[in-house]
Amino acid sequence: MSLTAKDKAVVRAFWAKVSGKAEDIGCEALSRMLVVYPQTKTYFSHWPDLSPSSARVRKHGKTVMGGVGEAVGKIDDLTAGLLTLSELHAFQLRIDPANFKILSHNILVVLAILFPADFTPEVHVSVDKFLTALALALAEKYR
Amino acid sequence: MIPILTRTLAKSSRANMVEWTDEERAAISDIFSKLDYDEVGQKCLSRCLIVYPWTQRYFGAFGNLYNAEAIMNNPLIAKHGTTVLRGLERALNNMDDIKNTYAELSVLHSEKLHVDPDNFKLLSDCLTIVIAAKMGTTFTPEYQASFQKFLSVVVSALGKQYH
């Protein structure tokens, strides 16, 4: 299920529309993940406050979406482009890759909420494929 | 002996029941009250067939599914979307016993339709996204959590009779 030229074009065009709200998207997606899939909170036991308004959640949402934006720029070779991030996730963060799928789903939900007219089924399939490819690239160094 | 057995059986069937808080019930009812089943059903099913094209394998008799536009304009798909939403409404109206309410539907999906139960999750995710687009920010994280729980119970009940 690799990214076609059409997928890449769709993702780039959609990202151009939404990247202005990247921080909001990231913060909202992260908050939803923590509320709807409470098992993900286990990775944040060192944070005192996991509410959406907390500065840490906001900052971390921005960090995560920064990574997504970086991936859009490297969409032609995600594995090579995200090598450092993969090492971070594999050796330091050691996040179970099943959680990438969970966060991706919540990103899609937030995109639907914030951009209901633009997040058409065609955009949805290309973005879903992209996030899946991104997750795969992130898991590259795990074993 | 018999009273003990009866108590044990009653206790174990209660243990299998899903517990819903008042907030969860209210959230799920509120979400359903905002849904036009024809609109949401059509959008949900067609989105699933477009985003996860392998799901089209179950719709060979539904006519033209050649591209996204064809799928979105297909009247048979639209009609079936409504059917799916009506099925979900049955779960809404029987929230304290979704498992038994869906026993026949589970047999249908397994024995007659031969649907891989993994597909239920794909359709659920599409439904969540369609509802999110419709409700906007009123689809709060708490609403999403309640609805996700409801869908998980539905999906589990649908898969129960597979063997």
Description of the molecule:
The complex is a heterodimer of chains A (143) and B (163). Chain A is an all-alpha fold and 143 residues long. Chain A has seven helices and no strands. In chain A, helix 1 crosses helix 7 (121-138), helix 2 packs across helix 6 (98-114) and helix 6 (98-114) runs antiparallel to helix 7. Chain A is globular, with a radius of gyration of 15 Å. The mean pLDDT of chain A is 95. Helices cover 71% and strands 0% of the residues of chain B. Chain B is built from nine helices and no strands. The radius of gyration of chain B is 18 Å and the shape is globular. The relative contact order of chain B is 0.15. The model of chain B has no long low-confidence stretch (mean pLDDT 92). At the A-B interface, helix 2, helix 6 and helix 7 of A face helix 3, helix 8 and helix 9 of B.
